[in-house]
Amino acid sequence: MDLSTVAVPHTLARLTPLLPPPPARVLEAGCGRGALAAALIDLGYEVTGVDRDAEVAAAAEARGVPVVRADVRDVSGEYDVVLFTRSLHHAEDLDGILGHATTLLAGGGQIVVEEFAWERVDHAAADFLHDSRALLVAAGLLDAETPSGDLVEAWAADHASLHRGSAMLAALDRAGADLTTVPTAVLWRLLDGRGGAWTEPATRVPDVLDALRRAEERRIAAGTLPPVGLLASVRR
User: Fold this and answer.
1) Helix (H) or strand (E) holding 73
2) What is the CATH number of the domain that holds 197?
């Protein structure tokens, strides 16, 4: 199930104000199947994707995205932006990767990160995830298990191997200057969990997720949900 029709416009709306104007050179680390990279190319950016996974790299190439099949630490060249899109949270060495990213930047260039701070999930956020997932399962749109017991503890146990948002922001701050952060909604993108599968009728899923995204954003604006998602940038 390709959710890029919902996810990419949401990301672009928050990402592009942080970026220099086209045709800036963007290196997207962990580009996956290339949906965001292709959208940035459509906006006039000069984008190169990086991914170690041959299958997803091939999918990105099929979208017209130039892809380097490598670890970002093995990439050379000069870029105006090095963009990490939900790929930094499982990095082995945050300082090493971000330090190398700074060597790829032109003068005044930026590192930009789209991520989620899993440690910000409180009981309200865990309830939103659980209840939304349960509704999707009941509607026949999602095949996924729902956790039992304390929902926050279950969430933390499932994500403890990933870097915390605070750790990623601290490493980013060490790598550059003028740290800027933008809180975002992200729970709606995590509803399938680990091992969940979207089911038919798949054509309904994007509209349903878009409605859940708006519901999450309303609750963040009202102060009843924490903003678990984040965009952040630093300059060289």
Assistant:
1) none
2) 3.40.50.150
